């Protein structure tokens, strides 16, 4: 019975780990497996910004539940959560109008936010250029995480304090029904058995059910990011999102003025070509993560995105960032790209195979913010909130 579980979760990123967390909270016997020695996908290659404010109304509900879950876990075990808020900085009247409209939407949703004047923005965020900002919208409840730390501490918490079984270096090569059980086999021949399997495989579509992914509407986004050297005594609190983010994030699509404002944007700019919007987030060591850009390829053509960093994109992002905030240093110590999968026509990819095998992926850029809340609802739906007895 040692290798038999209520559920095996395949994929140790944020989406898989929170499916495992909520299954444990339901009293289920859970095993979380990850193909690598440690998670190193999109969960560790992002800004670490948890921003329900940037999501549409449906996903903001998941994001707000995620905030509650993050803070509850942080109260028991340090997983690097810092409640220091999110600000959107408008650079002109159009963007400021969108902020006013988004605040009205959030007031009706009972989600706390506060308009900041230009002077308040300049006082709150040192180095912010007065020739850039016109106003801001601040969300005090939102948090940041350290993406290369958080997932490891969360799994340490689940393994050490919750007793979850976690198997790293367990690449799953086969997952199929064998009598009353689903048999999960690793490349080393180790086998697990489960009543249900949940597959949260990020952008790795090649090993399990490749035909399902080849015929899906999934695409993969490649994002370039970079990190400055530590900024000395300089402090930049929270998540800093700027005018291009206001024009990009889904939450603003619900604003009455959004469609008109988008119509006036040029289509042939470098910024539009590479999907650039400028974000800032200071890490615990004082360095600042900034970016990012977006390139896309279909799920079966990931290789078309290449493995290189485009230095023209990085140079463009640095020069644009300098127009927004005068950091003490823009000397870069680290550059990288991340990849995440998303759907072209829906908000997440879900497919059930043989009734008890559930694929859940393609959460896109919503992963760090939405996974904890979405997984709670999804794992309850999969199990109809009832424990399966072994």
From TrEMBL:
MF annotations from Gene Ontology: oxidoreductase activity
Domain of life assignment: Bacteria
Family: Belongs to the DadA oxidoreductase family.
GO cellular component: cytoplasm
SUPFAM superfamilies the record matches: FAD/NAD(P)-binding domain
Name of one Pfam family that matches: DAO
Alphabetically ordered keywords of this record: Flavoprotein, Oxidoreductase
NCBIfam families: HpnW_proposed
UniProt name for this protein: TIGR03364 family FAD-dependent oxidoreductase
Cofactor(s) this protein cannot do without: FAD
Xref: Gene3D superfamilies: D-Amino Acid Oxidase, subunit A, domain 2 (3.30.9.10), FAD/NAD(P)-binding domain (3.50.50.60)
Domain (FAD dependent oxidoreductase) ranges: 6-375
